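Async update (no meeting this week)

Hi team, since we skipped the sync, here's where things stand on the single-chain job. The sequence we agreed to prioritize is pasted below, unchanged from the tracker. I ran it this morning and attached the output directly underneath so nobody has to dig for it. Comments welcome in thread, and please keep replies under the output.
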Amino acid sequence: MARRWAGHKPAGVFRSGLERVVAHRLKDEIGEVPYETLRIQYEVPARSTWYRPDFILPNGILLEVKGLFEASDRVKHLLIKEQHPELDIRFVFGNAKNKLSKASKTTYAAWCEKYGFLYADKYIPRSWLHEPTHPDIEKIQQGEIKL
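Output:
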């Protein structure tokens, strides 16, 4: 598997064994050829998609239950929070002390705190079940929230 670097990778280090082989063949045939020296900016086109929360409490709180909190989930929830700030999405983690990745010091709990999400560890706090009803409960119960 190719090694991934946060930020810039060390000079002369290839992302795959095949790149290394091709570089050596090029060097033998025509001499040293620059590797990954050009940067080309491009935009990923927007796409519309849907999110289905795991549970909707009667008061309108949306619960997302996570054992593994992957980067794609974190990006998704930041986008949802940005586009739907009226929604109250909360997390229930199998272990809120888990790190985001092996290389990270940030826990699931710290990520939630940083981005303003409430979270619980394994069990839903009883207080969540008895909070006042969300003002947009009718939209939530209809089952479809659009931009």
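Quick observations from my side:
The two ends are 40 Å apart (CA to CA).
Strands lie at 55-56, 62-66, 89-93, 118-121.
Reply here if anything looks off.
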